[in-house]
Fold:
Amino acid sequence: MSVFFDPNAAAMAGSGIYGLPCTSEEAEIIIIPVEWELTTSYNRGTVDGPKAVFDGSMQVDLCHHDYPDLWQHGIFMDEFPKELRELHGKLSPISEEIIEAIENNEIEDNIIEYNAKYQQIEAGFEKMFAWLRERIEYWKSKDKVVGLVGGDHSVPLPYHQVLNAKNENYGILHIDAHSDLRESFEGFRYSHASIFFNTMQYKSVKKLVQVGIRDYCHQEKQLINDSNGRITVFYDRDCRRRMYEGESWKDVVTDIIDKLPEKVYISVDIDGLDPKLCPNTGTPVPGGLEYEELMYLLNMVRESGRKIVGFDLCEVSPGEDDEWDGNVGARVLYHLCGISL
Structure:
């Protein structure tokens, strides 16, 4: 990084994420943006989440409260291929057409036609996943800390495919409003609502610990109950009740961390936070973690001595009239970088 860089100055035009001037070779941390959201069925916009986070990062002061020297390690944001963004643009209307047909109960009357559309969407996912696996493997081969920023929550699956291929036994800490354990949703195999059903198919994933969950279906609840402890959920309402009845957030966090193995992957869906912190996310749900509760939880994971093998931040969606969601997302991402070193 340039010796002339002033971490106290405003971010300069043309600089990298967080206003840092470092190259990919100089940076210890690589963020891969994944501009992809083909299965979001409520409010779309997370495809532009990486840009919102990048833009928001320019307003982040570099002296992190817990990791003041974080910026010196260097953070570099990779590029999402133009051809994949164009592919997404072609496939997005098709996925919207499928979802509208489901809502209007038109699928069964045109099953052959819609099966072909589903195949197009799945082929698009497979192409994007192949690229993302290659990028993760490439940067890890360079001994980089690698994180993802989405996009909807379907995008981290290739990271778990890479870790599973390396027989990297680990657990997942998942912060979210939703369990994302549906076998499929609206017919999409790679739905954002199915990311952890798909991930749990990999033997390397020894444990899934979910925090902030407050929206789930019967099938997901049954899967959790039948997991023989492989999935542990700290439901938002249960955590709140413990705190209302006299326990502290520290008590809850201690129990969360006790469920995690030595190696941990962290997956943060921004809607795990209270919606006032992410009002434009695709599927906001009342309740959720306060910002500092999340920061405390993440810090305690690091202080426990657990090794963080990867992370992602998903579902950040920019508002039309403000930069609030990107601002919050950039700060969550910066903290994830800090605890991963």
